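re the bet — no i am not wrong, look at it urself. input seq straight from the record:
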Amino acid sequence: MNPSSAVLASRDQALSFFNNPFSQAHSFPLANLKNGSFVAPISTQIRKPQLNTLFTASKRFQAITACLGDRNPPAKALRQILELPGVHQGPACFDGLSAKLVERAGFQYCFTSGFSISAARLGLPDTGFISYGEMVDQGQQITQAVSIPVIGDGDNGYGNAMNVKRTVKGYIRAGFAGIILEDQVSPKACGHTKGRRVVSREEAVMRIKAAVDARKESGSDIVIVARTDSRQALSLEESLWRSRAFADAGADVLFIDALASKEEMKTFCEVSTLVPKMANMLEGGGKTPILNPLELEEIGYKLVAYPLSLIGVSIRAMQDSLTALKGGRIPPPGSMPSFEEIKEILGFNNYYEEEKRYATSTYPLYSDRVSSNAYSVQRVQDDSEQRGQSPQDPVVEVITPDVYNNYGADGSRGPFSGIWSRTLRIRITGRDGFEKLDVRIPAGFLEGITNIVPALGVVNIKALLDDAAEEVGGKLLLDFNDTMGDRIQVFLE
C-alpha cells in the first residue's frame, strides 16, 4: 500500500489519535472505521468523510449490511468479512452476555477466549483445566446469544488428529463461524505465559489436515484459523515454516502467537501472502507490541483479537464494587448501568413485547404477574379483575408471608408490632456532594436495611426505633460518615 502524500498527513493524524484517543486536540473525520473494522484511506479511492465515534458505531457498516443477511450461515458471514478491505477488530468474549455487549457495540464478529472462559466458568488459569465439552457448551450459549459470527478457541483440538476432527465437528454444531487450532502439547498453556511446548512439525500439520477433512465431511465452510506457538517454544524460523505448511494444508487464516517485535510481525505477514493473517493484541503486558489498527493494516493483518479487555475490566469492576460494599456503601450509579438499562441489555423489554402476541385469559402477561425487586415484594392483581372489572382496578402490594411474620406482623405483641405502619428513609450523599441513594422501606424490615447499606449493620436500629416509637414522624435517627467518606442519614417517617 502506497498512500499519497496528502493521505500520509491524514494518516499521521490518525496515528496520533489512536495513541491519544481521548485528547480533545485531535478531531478529524474517520469515515472508514465502523463496527470494529478499519479501512485505511488509499489514493485510488474517493470517500466522502463522515464523523464517526472511534471503535464503535451506531449501526452496521453498509457494505456488511448489504451482504450479511440475518439468514446467512455464520461461516459465510465471516468469509465475507475476510473479503472486505481493511483490518477487522474482534473483541474476545467469554459468555452470552459479553458476546451480546460486543454485538451491541457494533462489532462485526467476535472471538471466544479460552483464557477468559476458564477464568469465568471455572475460576482457574488457562493451563489445560477446561475441557472440550465445557468449551462447546459455553460456545453454544455464546453463538445463540448473538447474530454476528463467532470464532471459537479450539485450543489444541483436545488430543490427536482424530480428536481434532471431533472438536471441529462439535464447534460446527455449536454454531461457530470459525475455529482456532494450535500446535501445543497437552496440557496446553496460555500463549504469553511460560512453559509452552509444541508437537512435532508432522503432527502439527496433520491436525490442520484433520480439521480440513472434518469440515468437508460435515458439509460446512467453517473458517480454520491455524495457530502456532513455536515462536516462543522454538524459534521465529520454525514458526514461519509451520505457517507456510498450515497454509498448504488448507488453513484459511494464519496466526503466530507471541511475536516479539514489529519487525517479526512484518516478516510473518510476508509468508503465504494470499492467506489472511491474524494478530493478537494481548492487553496489559504481553510479548507482542500493541499496535493500532492503522499500523496493523499497513503491516498486512486482516483480523485482530483483543483477548483480555472484557474479562480484565470485568475483574477490576467487580473488585471496585466489592471494596465499596465492604466499606459500607453500594457502587455509585455512575459505575454501573441502571436497572432499566440492565433489563434493556438482557432483552426484558423485547420479551414483554413479544409476550403480548401469546397472551391469553388463562395466562396473564409476565410483567403483570411479577415485579421483581430487592424486598421480595410481589405485585398481585386484585381478584376483581377476574370478575370482569376494568383493568384499571387498583393493584395490591403484598409482602411475602415469611418475611412479614418474622417481624411480628402476624398480629403478635412483639417489639415490632405496628412498626410496619412507619417508613425508614435512607439517604447517602457522596463526598462530591452528589446523591448516591435515596430509598424508603418498611421500618420493620431491618435485614433489608443492612442489605442496602452494610455500614448500618453495626448500628442498633431496633433501639433507635424503640426510642422514637412515639415520635410523630420526620425524626433524624442517624447522621454519620462511613469509612469511604459518604454521608449516611436515616429518617423515621
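see?? DSSP finds 19 helices and 16 strands in the chain. told u. also The longest strand covers residues 435-442. so pay up
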